[in-house]
Structure formats: structure tokens, C-alpha cells
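Two records follow; treat each independently.
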Amino acid sequence: MAQGTTSAHIAITSIDTTDGSRIIPPMAGVTVIVGANNSGKSTFLREIFQLISAEQKNSTPRRHIIKDCILTVEGTPENLIDTLREGGTYVDRQPNSGFMIENQIIPEPYARDRWHRAGKPDVTGTLGRIAPFFVHYVNTANRASGISPQQRRPNIEDIPQSPMHRLEDNPEMLERVREISLRIFRQTLTLDRLSNNVQLRVGAPNIPAPPVDAVTREYRDALISLEPLQNQGDGMTAVLGLLVPIICGSQDIILIDEPEAFLHPPQARIIGTLLGELSQERDMQLFMATHDRNILVGLLQSQVPVTVIRLDRCTSPTRIHELDYSRVRTLWDDPVLRYSNLLDGLFHHAVVLCEAERDCTFYAASLDAANENSGLDFSPGDILFVPAGGKDGFPGMTTALKAVSVPVVAIPDIDLFDDKNKVRTLVDAMGGNWISIEPTYRIATAPFQKPRRQFKNAQILETIRKVLEPAPEAAYDRGTEEAIKAAMRSDPSPWEDLKKFGVSAFRGQERQAAANLIQNLQELGIVVVQDGELENLAPTVGSRKGKRWLSEALETEAYRDQRAQTHIDHVIDAIKHRLQTSS
């Protein structure tokens, strides 16, 4: 909230939601509303604006997410009148004299009364009809109006009524807008002050601007040859239609729905950075609903305080998960979160972590097939598959996702069991109790924990001799090399059978313990491949490893095979359980 002794300012102190949560937004920073499709992001912003601009809180339409919005005001009613006189037009039309705000005449007594009530936490604590002077609400429908041409003022000393008038009066604002246009679109802008309508044009005249009292025909022609900004493509008009009113405005609270609309990813990131910079320059509160990680990345790069609000609409009422700006900054300093696509998980119902990229592709195809066969309770598109770069990556990514309240499921191959520390670390990251699981793990894996037989050098030499001796004069080729390697593997690790045969490698009491262990892990969201490894889920695929395996698996639709579908059924159960427990 801006400071000053003669100005009136306002801020949102807290927001109460229908699920019982209370959000404390940063006073000079950004609150980002995220969530899966149809989670209520736009509704969140709209209901805030409805509450602030209502005559009374209980007079607004039925609200689904926002229960209450508490305002803090700075300044006296006299400060308010001074602020309105500085930034608005006073219309003397007795008996309806007052301040012109969005084509409405606001009487001075009404403005004073609203300001007196605004800071009260009861039903009267709203701004009513003076809200647009302090709150700027922009969505995809009204964005282009921010750069619309405006009729020239009858007198140049008249108070500016639009962004175009303010650009006409303020060279610093105009230069800031030009700098932003160059930064994003590599295009400068020229303010047309000669036409009946003040407007921005794209480019610069090819001759210098003459003095205002000596405008030449050549300069007018050069100016007219420049295309009006409002005639440009959706990207440029959307960006500048969003940013120009903020640069030129004086509102303390900005509400923006889908700032990434019509933008390419690099532009979205720049917009995020610029909005963060503007919130600091203007000392304003910015609330933004987005489904684009590039916007969020740009905001974080601007170093502005960012609070993330994640909406979960899987149950009613909508659940609110808040990550305050200190926690957001800590997470952003984690390279795993910064340089992976984990942030995309904020915009999905759940994330499934896989060992590698090809695992993600195969499991995503399996999930689509399962949905085609029986229909799921959730859309496959609402589930994000993320490669963890091997089993070692699971715990760190899980911790990051849980910090932002994103339900997470991990799919490791069954050879996860060959390393007790890896199992324990992942269980801990998933919120499990390793002490209660460890006895079952110990019983199930006991036969595989036996140390491998140790060979002496003489035994190894004898093994090699037996391979080479029958043909001492033959060339040492690839086949001979493979024969030696096979002989050396004559005493393989017991864990190799586990990966090769999956749960079938367990015997006796160990088999029941393994079943219990697998079930316990699945309840935590750890779904091991019971057939051993990914390739075993598609036994009809000829290629056993490498890039060719995935191509063949997709071409032959091996993800529809019984083994693959049985496994994805376990994953689906785990996703459902995580969604329920997170709600």
C-alpha cells in the first residue's frame, strides 16, 4: 500500500474462503491463483471484485469460493476527496454534482461515507461505486480497452480520463511503455497527438517531429503511415492492453485474469517479470489467476514477494492451499523446482513421477487407454507425468510437490527394493512411517540380501581360460567378448531375478510379506512395477531396450496389453487415494 500524508490508499488485509482458510496476501507483492482447469481461478478474482465494489457484502451474488474480504484504508475522508480531485474529474451538475468515475457521477457525501465504512470488517466494509478508482479488474474480455483511442480533451489542462491522456501528459510513462514494447516485441511506439483521437501507433516516423506550432504535412503523412496499435495482432494488443493501464493508472489493487492469453511462452515469462517489477514500482497489490508456469517463473525472477494460492476443486467446497512468499522463495532456490517442469504440477490435479521420459510416455498412453475402456473419475489430461531422472530423483521432487500441496504418485521399477536407504528416503518423502514398514521390508527381501559369492583371481583366470582355450588362434571379436561376460555372470546377483521376474521371484513367507509391502507403499503413492521393470509390461515388443523399444511399444499399442493395464489400474487407485487424502 502506497505511503503518503495527503493521499488515500487501500489494501486487502485478508481473504476468508468457504473452506475455512484465511489468506494473508503480501501488501506490496503478487498473489498468484493456480490450479487445474475449472478449479475456480477466474471465480476467485471475480468474487473478490464483487465483494469490494458491492454496496454491502451480503448484496453480492452467491459466492462459491470467497467468503469475506477485509480491507485496510489509509487516509482520512478529506484525503480521499483530495485524491479524487487529483485523479478524477469533478462534475458540477446540481443537484447531481460529484466525481466522474467510469461514467458515473459519485456525490462527495457518498464518497466520504464509503471511505468511512471501507475499513470496517462488517458487511458495510466495501468501496461501493468508488471501487474502480482503487481497484483495476482486467480479464480477456476487457483487456483491449486499455489501449483504445481516446477523444482529445477540450482543454489540455483538463484532468486525464484515460491511459492515452496520461501518456500525453507524462513523458516518463510514455517512455516506459515504449521500453516495454521494444523489450517484448522489438517495436517502438509513437503517440499520435495530432488526430482527433489520441492513440498509439506502431513504429516511428521517418522524419524528426517538428515543434508543436510548426507541424509539417510531411510529418503528418509519416505519422499516419504508422499502423494504429489497436489494429495489431492479439498478442501485442493483449499485452499492451494489459500493461498500459497499469503503468498509467493509480489503483492500489490490480486483479488480472489469464495474463498469458494470446502469448507465446517466452513472452509470457517476460510479462510475468514486468508485472512483478510494476508491482514494486507502483507499491501495489497484484492478484493474478494463471495456468501458465512461464508467468510464474517470470514473477519469481523479478524478485517480488509472491504468494501462491492453489485451488483444488475435487471436493466441495473448493479447497485452498496457500504457500506464502517466504516458502515460495525457498522452493525457488531449489534447482530441482527451478529447472524441471515440476512447476507445471501446480496446474494439474496430480503429478506422477517416473524414472525416465519414456516411462512417462508409456504410462500416459496406458492411462489414456484405461480411460477409453472404462472412463475415469478424472481427465487423463489433468495428470502430469514427470521424469525424475532415476530413482534418486523421486524424494526431492516429491518434497517439492508436497510443499505446494500437489498430490504426487511415484512409479519405480521393483529393483527399488535392492537399496534400503532409497526405499526409506522415498517413504519419508511421501509422508510414510518407515519404522512401521521396515519389518515387512526386511522379511520380504531377506533372500535377496545374501552376499554374492566372492571369487579369487585364480577362479576368474580359469573362467576366461575355458572360454578362450578351445580356439587360441581365433580373433578376439564381439562374440568372444560377450561369451566372457556371460561366463563372468555365472553367479548373478539375486536382485537380477527380482527385476527379471518381478513378484514371481518371491517365495514362501517372503511372498506374502512382499505383497503387504507393495500394498503399504501403494497407499503412500509409491506404485512399484510388480512385473519387475517397464519393459516387462509389454512382453510382445521385440526390442528389449533403448529408444526403439518405446517406438515399437507405441506403434503396436502394447500399452493396451493386460500387464500394462493391470499396472496402470494400480496407478489409478493410487492417484484417487492421493486426491482424496489431499482434500
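The next record belongs to a different protein.
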Amino acid sequence: MSRNPIYKFMEKILNFCRRNSNRLIFCLFCFAFAYAEFLTLSVRPLDTDIFWHYKLGEEVISTGRVTLENTMSFIPGTEWVPQEWLYEIGLYAIVSSLGALGLFVLYAVNTTMQAVISERFAKPKHIIWFCIAASVVLLFTPRNAWNRPSELSVYLFPLIILLYRKKPKFSHLYFILLGVFTANFHGGCILVMTAIFILMLVCDLFLDICGKKFSGFKYYRAHLVDLLLFLGSTCINPAGVRLLTTIPRISSLDSTKYISEWKSLSNSYYMCVIILAIAISLGFALFRYRFSRREFPVIMVLTALLILSMHSVKGFIIFDMVWLCFGYRYLEEMLDSFFQFSAKPKLKKISLLLFLTIQPAVFTLAYGVAKSSVSDMENKSLEDYANSKVDGEIISCLKENYTPETKILTSYNGGNYLIMNDMKCFVDSRQWPYAKELGESDAVDELFYISTHTADFQSISEFLNEYEFDYIWCNKDLRIEQYLAADPDYEKIMGTEAEKPEKFYEADDDDASESLWIRKEI
């Protein structure tokens, strides 16, 4: 008697699931991870750096050339190094097609791709443990950058390690292409990528010395040629040599001390636990592979990147991608060695059951949040979405009265809203054109000083007299309202009435409001 066709079909489905359980689990994880990343943006502050990236991409597309000038500010003595133009035209193409919703989609796709690519590199034995590790380091890393090239360029670091280790047949060509792409997609990576390459070369030399064995001049010559080709090809950039001479000075910028991604990691408990677990696994790997030519250089690179990440949030964004690709295996080996997870099928079944149970609960809980987030962004251009996040009346007033000669002052991030609306500002969120170490301008330092020393009326007065701003747009990041209220040369035209303060006081951020001031001479 033949069995029911439906029963046969279900049996085939179950057999397929058993044979491909790891793939199914990982696909389910990737779907859940993309969904979670999509939702995180609904509760994060808007990353205004996206605006100037978007407008530079629009400028390249509309003019057909990559500008070497700072076209977004009226500050003299500033120049622009176009080291991200390739990224910017891609961002412009996506967001102009999908609208503001494209920012959410791009972020979810990017971070999910990081998990997918690192899984292919790591080849984990225990897919569930890998999913947990990827979730922890990718979701809990303080990712100040949404869709900026610093976030999207993390793929370049595992790639240069892979090219060094594999030494493919056409490695010279690959390093040339890598250099060209890096210099035009995110030139800021060149310094760290070069340091990684040199560190691996030094590790090889160290192993040769310890092993009393020399790999030969041909081996080292080939690697040095690769490095020189990589650096030489980075000059195929509109800014050419200016890019290479500028990047080494970035690490010494005093101006960056004010900017979050250049600050040290926060001392939160969960980050301490993550770093401690990773550090222990690297120590375990070093003991196990201390004389392995294949593993020792990678362990040293991961250690160096982990140390770098203690000093920079950006550093940890680089580290977590490289660690997932090359360092997760050491954690897995350590756990197997200590706890023998692979020898406990019951534990694997329990963890699988928990994993499959949690997923529907996450989707159900997050559905309402996702629905409201999507409805807030869909059918909106990036400009409309941006303007919905600030005082629309102030933006409208500035646009109506703006001319190419108008000088507007606002906060460090607020300048990006002006740029989004085709108005030049004092400074925007880029550091390169305004940092005194890279050019002739002290603009970033000057702006941050008056923003953080609101009782220093003398300095504020000298600053405003130097630049003679036509409009000043105050908000919680530019807290000079008290000075302006006492200055007879300025008048508030939007916002609540302010009285001349009899004495200075520090107000809470909750008390800050947006206001627009005008110089009476105009």
C-alpha cells in the first residue's frame, strides 16, 4: 500500500532540513539579524554625516567630475581630499532611488553581509555558537557610523590579510586593484591596512629568526613589491599624492578629541566581558600556534587591532570584522578544548531548540516598531526626512533668505542640515578641511571651544567678530544664546524670547531649544 503523497512530501522536507540544518539555522539567523539591525536605526539619533556624503555624491554625478575644493563651506584656507567619492556616488544612487528608506535597507544589508562573509571565512563547526558570537560583537559594538565608508570598508581588512596569506597567482594585480579601490572608496583605511601588512611581514621574519630558517629574499621581495604596488596604486585618486601625505597625520589630530568615533571605547560591563573573552581566546591561540607561520601573524594582527580598539571606537569596528573572519575559530577551539561542546549532543539540541524558539518571539515583539519606522521613512526623500528632524520653520526661513554670500553659523552636526538644503555653512562634520594640522584653518577647534565654553564671552565675541555671521542657528549643541541675548548686534527672530541674563548659569540639555538669530546690520 503506497503512502499518502502529502506524507512523502513532508518526509522529504524533514530529511532536507536534517541534512541542511546548519544552513537553515544560519539563514534564519541572517534574516533575524537584518531585521534587528533595521530596527536599531529607529531608536538611534540620525547620523547627519550621511547628508554631506549624499550631497558630494550628487555633486559628482551632476558635474561629472570629482572636486578637489571644499564646496560646502565659506571658510578660506580649506581644501578637500576626495577619498570617498566612489562610496558617495553609490550612496547617492541608492538613496535617490529608494528615498530615506534606503538608509535603513543599506545598513541592514551591510551588517548582515558582515555576518555572511565572516561565516564563510571562519567555517565554524558550531553554527549556533557562531551566530551568538556574531550577534554579540556586531550588535553590541558601539557603531557610531551608520552607512559611512568607515562602516562599509571593514571588508577591506580581511581581504588584505587573505591576499597576504594565500599569495594568489596574480597577487600583484590584486594589490593594485585593492589600492585603487581603497583610495577612492575610503582612503582613511590605507594607513591601518599598510600597518597590518607590515606587521605580518615582521612576524614572518621573526619566525624565520626563531626557527633559524630563512624563507629567502624572493619571498620577502615579492611581499614588498605587493606593498609598494598597493601604496603606489592609491595615488590613482583625484587628489593623488595629497592623499598619501595627509593620511599619516590623521592620528595626531588634536581636533579629533571632540569627535566620538575617535574616542576610547566606553567602559561598559558588556564590552569588558566581550574584550576579556576575546583576549583569553587569543592567548590560548598564541600558546597553541606560537610557531605556526600561518596562524602566528594573524594572532599578532588581531592583538594589535584589539589594542587599537581600546583607543578608538572606529578601531573596534575594524577589529570585530577581522576577528569574526580569522579569530572566532580560536574561541571555538578554546571552548571545545575546555568544555567539549562537540561531545555533548544534548546541549546542541537544547541550544537549537532555544534558538528556534526565540526567533518567532523576536519577530512578534518587533513587528509594531518596524511598522512605525518604515511608515516614518517610506515615500520620503532624504531631504524631507532630514528636515523632519529639526525645526522646519528655521530651515524654511534660512532657505528663503539665503544667497551665495550668506554666512551661517550652527553646530558641528547642524551644518549638515544646511548642506542637505544646499546652503553653505561654517563647518560640517568633516574633519579634514577644517583641522589646523591638515590645512590653514582652525575652524573645528574654534567652533568646539565656543560650544563648550559658553561662559567665555570674550572668546565668543572675538569669534563672531572675526567671521561676521549673518545668521546663527542655536540648538543644544551650540549653546551661545546667553551671549547673543546680551549682544546688541544680534536679534532673535525665531524661538522663545530671551532676556539678558544677569549672570551666567549652566542649563540642562533638556532646557535647550532651537532658535535663529540675525545680525542687525543686514
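Discussion point: The longest helix spans residues 345-377. How would you locate this feature using only the C-alpha cell line?
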